[in-house]
Design goal:
567 residues; twelve-stranded mixed β-sheet; globular
């Protein structure tokens, strides 16, 4: 990344540690309250060790991935540059629907520079297989009066956020699909280029939830200097604490209804503020700064939302109807002082008010911008079951993204067997129709450059002292062709060298293929390049092993012939 872009990322956008040095005029009382290290605890590596399998490459800035209802063979991924990709999970081939002509020109600071605008989210209608409806969130030029605006008279918006409904079916097209119909549901003016939120999701209740950030800039207050000029469009108290407009809020609508003010969507009667005369009726929850990704637990229905912090705290929330999550009076669980026209900071003051605290949080010693993910409900990574997987864009603002998980208590960093760190900007997460998870990122930190990659989180083989579990092995047959299996082998007691008898074999779909673990029938050799060995204390060592088939054994049996430590 160019130095200029990195400085912008660090100093202006709150996605890294924005410089928060106080003016010389700041009084001693304020200094005494300020917390420079609000969360001293360090995020440790956890006891779960996985790998990243490359699924698709040559995207620009992928930021969200889900399956379409009824289609488990593909992952659909939004790219910030305006492409909606359909990725074949078996071979990585892809096609796209291009929305780029709708977008405001990207590059907030010049050619190929950082930006938070773009194609930021999409959602398939739960009945997509029947009605073919898809919803998108895009950042577009201001061209007409928007449905919602906080821009004062005589001012101008940076851009506007547009929620559209498309009728199209990817499966009917061998190349780029063409929409059969499209309409705009709602539009929102955005005062600055950043803090757009952008996630769209249908809940288990069939309603469409839409996340909006606070409108951008910094500290969510008019008058704060941002890119050399005083901010406007936030008011004296900020949009986060003003639920009369959609900025800083999570909305809940019925896209097929008509009782909204513009008549283009519905407002459910059971919304928490449906009868309010002071709060926007669409509001489900508010008090957010930049809710960059939320998702629903597919098993419990819990709504989990990650909110990017200002200068100190990154947070993950369990969202409840009508909840106020505190921004900009709180950052995480801490009192936030906007500090006049200087950079705000967190303090040790008690927070008064009916606010919801985050479930987990961390400070900027550990990262710069939380990236929301999913609760894992797949079937291949047993140790991850029920845990929320999320990440941070970049620990230091230099492309060193991180992957975390939590059960609602401590946060742990995910161990990777094939690398020390992800090695890229973590921009988003994905979940396929099987409940398996994906990590999305690039190496530029901008919506340019075709370095965007989709990775799948996959398990290593495991040995617990008595049995070997191989989540996916490709069997290559002498007569040609291959098949993917899940295999369990039992260790034969007293064997030396160690021998293992196959006790369970389950054929898998091609999308579960792990090209690294291979059995070659012609040689009888089974190569397992990553196998986690867990000792009695729970610590893990990862080995690369080679096993040889014992041809005269009464059952399919392998003998260990080589093992070398990987990690």
């Amino acid at each position: 990344m160019k130095i200029f872009q990195l400085i912008v990322f660090v100093a202006l956008l709150g996605l890294t540690c924005q410089a928060i040095a106080l003016d010389a005029a700041t009084n001693d009382t304020a200094l005494a309250k300020r917390l420079d290290n609000p969360i001293p605890a360090v995020i440790e590596k956890g006891a779960i060790r996985l790998r990243l399998k490359t699924v698709a490459t040559r995207l620009d800035a992928p930021n969200w991935g889900v399956s379409a209802p009824g289609d488990s063979e593909h992952l659909y991924v939004s790219d910030q540059n305006g492409k909606l990709w359909r990725i074949n999970l078996t071979d990585g081939s892809k096609l796209f629907f291009d929305l780029s002509t709708l977008l405001v020109p990207l590059g907030a600071f010049g050619s190929e520079s950082y930006d938070e605008r773009g194609f930021l989210g999409f959602a398939f209608h739960p009945q997509y297989a029947d009605n073919e409806l898809v919803y998108t969130y895009t950042s577009e030029p201001v061209s007409a009066n928007s449905d919602f605006s906080t821009i004062p008279p005589g001012g101008s918006a940076n851009h506007r956020s547009v929620i559209r409904e498309w009728k199209m079916n990817f499966s009917k097209f061998a190349t780029e699909p063409e929409p059969m119909d499209v309409r705009v549901l709602l539009t929102v003016d955005q005062p600055q280029f950043n803090h757009n939120g952008g996630a769209l999701n249908f809940g288990p209740d069939g309603r469409l939830y839409i996340a909006f950030g606070d409108g951008g800039g910094a500290d969510d207050r008019d008058g704060q200097t941002f890119i050399g000029a005083p901010m406007s469009g936030h008011g004296a108290d900020g949009n986060g604490q003003n639920p009369a407009n959609p900025l800083g809020s999570l909305l809940r609508i019925d896209p097929l209804g008509t009782n909204s003010d513009n008549g283009l969507y519905g407002i459910p009667g059971d919304n928490p503020f449906a009868s309010s005369s002071t709060v926007l009726r669409e509001t489900y929850a508010y008090g957010f700064r930049n809710p960059f990704r939320f998702s629903f637990d597919s098993q419990t229905g819990a709504l989990v939302l990650a909110d990017v912090g200002q200068n100190a705290i990154e947070e993950v929330n369990l969202v409840q109807a009508g909840g106020n999550y505190g921004w900009g009076l709180k950052e995480g669980s801490f009192r936030f002082d906007p500090n006049g026209t200087s950079a705000g900071f967190v303090t040790d003051e008690a927070v008064s008010g009916d606010f919801k605290d985050p479930v987990v949080q961390y400070d900027h010693d550990e990262g710069t911008a939380v990236i929301g993910g999913f609760v894992y409900r797949g079937n291949t990574i047993t140790d991850l079951q029920g845990k929320y997987v999320f990440g941070d864009a970049s620990k230091t603002g230099n492309g060193d993204g991180r992957i975390f998980y939590t059960d609602g208590g401590a946060i742990f960093e995910l161990e990777l067997a094939d690398r020390a760190q992800p090695g890229f900007w973590v921009l988003g997460f994905g979940q396929d129709g099987d409940g398996e998870l994906y990590v999305l990122g690039n190496t530029t930190g901008t919506p340019f450059g075709e370095t965007g990659t989709v990775y799948k989180l996959i398990p290593n083989a495991g040995f617990d002292g008595s049995a070997v579990d191989i989540p996916a092995v490709t069997a290559r047959f002498s007569g040609g062709g291959d098949t993917v299996y899940r295999v369990r082998m039992q260790m034969l007691a007293g064997s030396a060298p160690l021998r293992f008898e196959v006790s369970q074999v389950e054929p898998l779909a091609e999308r579960f293929r792990d090209d690294a673990t291979v059995f070659t029938q012609a040689t009888g050799q089974l190569q397992i390049p990553f196998i986690n060995v867990t000792n009695d204390s729970g610590s893990i060592a990862t080995y690369a092993v080679v096993l040889q088939q014992i041809t005269d054994a009464p059952a399919l049996t392998f003998e260990l012939v080589n093992a070398s430590l990987v990690k």
